[in-house]
Specification:
It is built from nine helices and 14 strands. With about 300 residues, it is an alpha/beta fold. The chain binds D-[(amino)carbonyl]phenylalanine.
């Protein structure tokens, strides 16, 4: 029997500084309601879905910086969203900036949470690959200060039994690293959920601008295929406070095919019936980890450092 999960990838257009959290949340709730009307089992929101991607700005005032983080999700700020999701019986993936206190120290992470259709938290993820820089680069048209505003995620790449299969999460730059998919797939992942904020210009490497869309898709299509996973990737798109961000929200099959993709850079839902059993031909045959991959052999290779001199 096919294990179908109807997934709604809910791309966000720009979230402006002038927008209140309530206004942003209402946009998400509106997409949630549309997704429920379409019979979705799960809605996937983007990275830092509640705020502008403030890592693009140099913020010196800590009180201002703290306004972009959430102490608890689900929590007071997002209560309306998760209550509506529970009422509509739809699961939710949401990316947000997390603040917590551990051993008396304030911690900040770029995080995501997965909540089931009954409103119970399934699991959390904290972004591991933090791109960009910690220093102020005033000559750049925008910053990428994730190394300054977030700590490296300390939860690893967990997977959970959920929605009839095995689900994992990653965030944005994590999608560019092959380990992300492999570690999740070794944890049994059949479905990987992620959000991203991806500018279409790389200040330090403008020569790569022409490849941003291609490489955004390439890394996920390869990751999906090489690990026999569905990948659902949801953008924060459009011109956000002077930073032009790509759309291309995508649902990618274990074959590596992009089966659904956004067409705009605004709030846009794309919906697809993902058959988790489509992972089997890859996991059990074409790319069977146990039968076709011998880690002990790799250890011999990976012990080798640098090219051999003939
Ligand atoms: N952003 C970007 C990402 O998609 C980036 C950083 C932009 C890398 C363009 C390469 C090209 O990985 C985040 N938030 O990680």
């Amino acid at each position: 029997m096919a294990r179908i999960i109807r997934i709604a990838a809910a791309q966000s257009g720009p979230v402006l500084r002038s927008e209140t959290r309530v206004q942003t949340l209402q946009r998400l709730i509106s997409m949630l309601q549309d997704a429920a009307s379409a019979g979705a089992d799960l809605i996937v929101f983007t990275e830092c879905a509640l705020t502008p991607f403030f890592s693009h700005w140099w913020i010196e005032d800590e009180a201002e910086l703290d306004t972009y983080y959430e102490d608890a999700v689900p929590g007071v700020t997002t209560q309306a969203l998760f209550e509506e999701a529970q009422r509509l019986q739809i699961g939710v993936h949401l990316g947000y900036a997390e603040r917590c206190v551990r051993n008396g120290r304030k911690r900040r992470f770029n995080s995501s949470v997965l909540v089931d259709a009954q409103g119970d938290v399934i699991g959390r993820f904290r972004k591991i690959h933090l791109p960009g820089h910690a220093d102020h680069r005033p000559d750049n048209p925008f910053q990428n200060l994730e190394k300054r505003y977030f700590e490296t995620g300390d939860l690893g790449f967990p997977t959970w039994n959920a929605f009839g299969g095995v689900v994992g999460m990653c965030i944005c730059n994590d999608r560019r690293w092959s380990e992300t998919y492999r570690v999740l797939a070794l944890g049994g992942a059949e479905l990987i959920l992620l959000g991203y904020n991806t500018p279409d210009h790389i200040p330090e490497h403008p020569e790569l601008d022409r490849l941003v869309n291609f490489q955004h898709q390439l890394c996920m299509q390869a990751g999906a295929y090489q690990n026999g996973c569905w990948v659902v990737a949801v953008g924060k798109a459009g011109m956000e406070e002077g930073v032009s961000q790509i759309g291309l929200t995508s649902i990618i099959a274990p074959s590596g095919e992009i089966v659904a993709q956004s067409k705009t850079t605004g709030d846009e839902l794309i919906i697809h019936d993902c058959n988790l059993d489509d992972t089997r031909v890859y996991k059990e045959a074409m790319l069977n980890f146990e039968k076709n991959r011998s880690p002990e052999h790799y250890q011999a290779i990976t012990a080798q450092r640098g090219a051999k001199t003939p």
